[in-house]
Every structure is written in structure tokens, then in C-alpha cells.
Amino acid sequence: MSNTELHPAETTCGTAQSPDVELLEPRLVPLGGPRAMTVRRTLPQRARSLIGAWCFVDHYGPDDVAQTGGMAVPGHPHTGLQTVTWLFSGEVDHRDTVGSSQRIRPGEVNLMTAGAGIAHSEFSTPETTMLQGVQLWIALPASARTGPPSFEHHVAEPVAYAEATVRTFVGSFAGTSSPVTTYTPTVAAEIVLPAGVAVTFEVDPAFEHGVLVDVGPVDVDGTLVDDAALAYRPTGRTTLRLTTAEQPARVVLIGGEPLGEQIVMWWNFVGRDHDEIVASRAAWMDQIAGAADGTPYGRFPSSWGDDVLPAPELPNARLRPRRQPPG
User: Fold this and answer.
1) Which residues form the Pirin C-terminal domain (predicted)?
2) For residue range 10-33, what is the model confidence (pLDDT) as tens digits?
3) Which domains can be identified in the chain, with CATH numbers?
4) What's the farthest any 2 CA atoms get from each other in the chain?
5) Residue 294, CB-side half-sphere exposure with 13 Å CA sphere
6) Rounded to two decimals, what is the model's pTM?
């Protein structure tokens, strides 16, 4: 998915910790034109920019595709990150410049590694009536951020854990693992809980964690978290307790070891400084115009035609890191 904001802010991600659960409320961002699907974005924001290496969290739906047109994101670039797509309902077709053409359905994960540069498109299928899911980005560490692009698809089988049902789609959690490639210790899992239960999970104390509530509310370690909010927990915890009341719930758990690197994120690019972002944008615009020396973001699929997203204009000021407030 693309960050389609016309004036995307640059974001520098660091680490900050709090002994308590920290609530991150979403802001609404339109994904396209006047009839666009709206997403709820909880990362990045001023209160916190990173959870482990996770640097971007969009949550959408249930979206009536007949009213909004669903997901319609033409070809657009990425650098220095991995995109992770996870659906609760509906289907999306993915195409990219390493030759991948993949339909994603609920219970399956698409993981795309941008490395030095890739481009992709995402469109909900004609058969989709309701669309609901999350789009997540992982910032690549310095050791992997200029490597080759790639794409992986995996079906995450459900497993029972106490009263909960868990699908682990990145890393390892609740006794199950996903084979998709990551470059820092990272985890992501869907957890479904019936009404009136309390389930305690073992978690890695070296990880920061976030609990994004898709259907709630859910009590996260004593803090009530409503739909679409993200609960942050710092490192040092060995357990995670989720409790439901009269309603069943569904959450997405993300986490990982703190990245330990400052990154600047603007539009769909993750870099380390202003000049790198400027160069990534210029390379994309040159490729669109046909003026690039080669294809730095890969060869466009023939089905795209001229349907690609131009990059927004850069701000007049030099991109500077956004300081991470203390937890």
C-alpha cells in the first residue's frame, strides 16, 4: 500500500519506553480520490514512531467496496522497508516489479522486501464486497536496506492457544512460526478471542510489542483498548494478558527488538537522511518519465500502462528527524 498523503511528513524513528501500556489513537487518512477508502493510521505519529522495526500501521474496514471502490492503489515505489499485507475479509491482487502476481486472501500474508527499490500495485478484486485488513511496514536495518528486492507469500494456519485462536504470519509466537524472511527479530500474529475470557501469552522480554484492536474492546494488561487503537508495551515484559468482556475480539500483535537506528521516512521511502530521500524520489520520477538510466525500481508490469503514482513534492525545507518523545 502507498502512503497517499499529499503532504507526507518526514519521520525519524527512534526508541522510547514507558513502564505502562501506552495508547496510540488512529488518525483518518483517505487512500485515494473523493470516494476513497479511508484507513486508520496509528504509526507513525508524534507520540511514537517505531515498535521494534515496525514503522507504519494502517487499519481499514469493514469497507463497503460498492460505496468506496475499495482498494485501488496504482504502481508506486518503496525503498528501505518491507510491506506486510494481512486481510480479515475480501481479496486483493498484488503485482510488482520483480514479476510477482499474487491474489491475497484472509489468513494469508504477502511480504514484499523493497531493499534498494521496488514498485507494486494493489487492487481489491471484482468479487470483493467487504474489505478489511491491515497494511504494515518494517524498516530494514542498515545491513539489508540496500539489498535486492523480493516477494513472499505464506498461508498462516490457525492454532489453538488456551481459548484463543492464533495465526502467526511473521516470526514466532504461541508455539508457531512463519517462514517469511525478516532482517531483525520481529513478530506479527492475528489473535481471535471469544467473549468472556482472559488469555495470558508468553512474550520475548527483548521485544517491544503493540496490540492493534480490529474488533473489541480488549483489555490489554489492565488497560481497555477500543477498536482501531494501538496499545504499546515496552521491553522487559515476559507475558501479555488479553481479556474480553461480553463481546468476542480480534487483535493483531506486532513486536520486535528495538531497531536501534534512526531512520527518516517520507512518502513511501525509508532512508537515513534528506539526500537519500531526495535521490529516491528523483529516481522514481525519472523512471516514470522514461529518463532513468535503466529501471532502478524494476520493470513495470505491462498491465500498469501509464497508471503509476507520481511522488508528491518535497517540502521546501530540508527533511529533518522528528524527535521521539520520552516514554
Assistant:
1) 189-284
2) 544 443 333 579 999 999 998 765
3) 27-256 (2.60.120.10)
4) 60
5) 4
6) 0.92
